[in-house]
Structure formats: structure tokens, C-alpha cells
Amino acid sequence: MATRATPRSARRRVEVVEAADMFYVGAYWGPRVESANECARRLALCLSQLGVVHPALATWFRKGRSKSAASGNPVATSVDVLEAMLVGGRDRTDVDGRVISELGFSVSLWNKNPVPVSFSTTCGASPATSSVKNYFTLELPEPVGAAAELYDPGVARSFFAR
């Protein structure tokens, strides 16, 4: 079996974390200058593949300050819609509202499902500091009841196999 060296900046880290009341799967990567369209294309592919893994990962909604304030209509996961959401999720300066381009594009959605799942991503970030990362996190419910299916080894492996 051959191995090949990967430049440090191109390496990705994937982790599964269990905190007191929170479980998530996260992928992290270093600085990468990308357009909103490039990020949207990868996100659309990721979301379509997650929808195949489990029905609870197939439909997404905008988050709100509360569950009742969240969007009532599903978000289309087309490249165009996701690109617009990513552009709308850019960080801005407090003083004059200018876009901070080196912080990339961000979006968070949830599934509005009895098996509650949400995801957050920042991509296209290329800051001068290493404390800001590009990432995709999938926040999962406790593995009880119907949510336990998400922790089935076959389903869990599918998060990484696609």
C-alpha cells in the first residue's frame, strides 16, 4: 500500500465529538480561497449525499432565533439558492458594514424534524490567523429512540464514505 505526503495546508481533520448534550461530526480544513459558487457546489453535493444516507438528512430549513421563528418552508439545496445564502452569511465589520472577505462564507440550517439535526459551515476562508478554520459540522441528537438510527454503524460510516 503506497502513501503519499499531503501538504499541511491541504489536510482535513474529521472528528466525532460527544459533549454533555451534544453530538456532532465535524470536518475542518485550512485556508482555502474559494468563491461562493465553488462553496455552494460542494455544499449542494454534500447535502444531496446526506439525504441518501438517512431521511432525517434530506430536507433543510432556515434557522431562527427560536423553533417557532424558523422558516416554515424547506430550503432548496440547489447551487444557486445555496450560493445566495452563503453570500448572505458573510461576516461584516461593525463600523461600516464592509464584508470581511478573508472570513469566507457561512450558512447554518436545520431539518425541523422529530429527529433534530442541524449543520453549519464556513468555507472560502483564508485568514492570516490559524484560529479561524473552514469547517462543516453536522450536529446530531442524542442516540435514543428514532435518532439511534443515525448512530447505526452503516449509517455513521456513510457520513464519510461519499
UniProtKB/TrEMBL annotation:
<dbReference type="Pfam" id="PF15579">
    <property type="entry name" value="Imm52"/>
</dbReference>
<dbReference type="InterPro" id="IPR028969">
    <property type="entry name" value="Imm52"/>
</dbReference>
<protein>
    <recommendedName>
        <fullName>Immunity protein 52 domain-containing protein</fullName>
    </recommendedName>
</protein>
<feature type="domain" description="Immunity protein 52">
    <location>
        <begin position="22"/>
        <end position="126"/>
    </location>
</feature>
